[in-house]
Amino acid sequence: MNSQKARVLAWLTQQNLCATTLLEQRIPRGAARILELRSDGWDITTRECTQHPHSTKQVEYVLHNSPGILWPDLAKDATPPIYTAT
Ligand SMILES: [Zn+2]
């Protein structure tokens, strides 16, 4: 798994991920990373962001529980991104 994909997955185990947050974390092709994770079998859905008051429509990604996966193992090296801009 490439490092950006691993980081995105680890973050998703801790919080829903706004596409803007991915941009701020210098992951400009976050949508591509999400597609890769989905093709790996992760259950990730896209919905309108519920975390921030965006002036334009923005999406967030939600990881759903996958049986047999220990999320702490995935998340152990991840620092959750902090949202700073509007
Ligand atoms: Zn947002």
Which tags fit this structure?
86 residues, 3-stranded antiparallel sheet, 4 helices, alpha+beta, binds zinc ion, 36% helix, 3 strands, globular
Overview of the structural elements:
The protein is an alpha+beta fold and 86 residues long. The chain has one domain (3-72). The protein is 36% helix and 14% strand. It has helices at 3-12, 19-24, 30-39, 71-75; strands at residues 17-18, 44-48, 59-63. Strands 1-3-2 form a 3-stranded antiparallel sheet. The longest helix has 10 residues, at 3-12. The chain is globular, with a radius of gyration of 12 Å. It starts with a helix and ends in an 11-residue tail after the last helix. The model has no long low-confidence stretch (mean pLDDT 82). The structure holds zinc ion. Zinc ion binds at residues 18, 20, 49, 51-52, 54, 58, 60. Residues 18, 20, 49, 51-52, 54, 58, 60 line the site of zinc ion.
Give the count of structural domains: 1
Relative helix content: 25-40%
The radius of gyration computed from the alpha-carbon positions, rounded to a whole number of angstroms, is 12 Å
Overall geometry comes to globular
Distance between the termini: 31 Å
Number of helices: 4
Q: List cofactors, ions and other ligands.
A: zinc ion
Average residue-wise pLDDT: 82
The biggest beta sheet reads: 3 strands, antiparallel
The SSE string, one letter per element, is: HEHHEEH
Low-confidence segments: none
Number of strands: 3
Structural class: alpha+beta
Strand order of the largest sheet: 1-3-2
Strand content: 5-15%
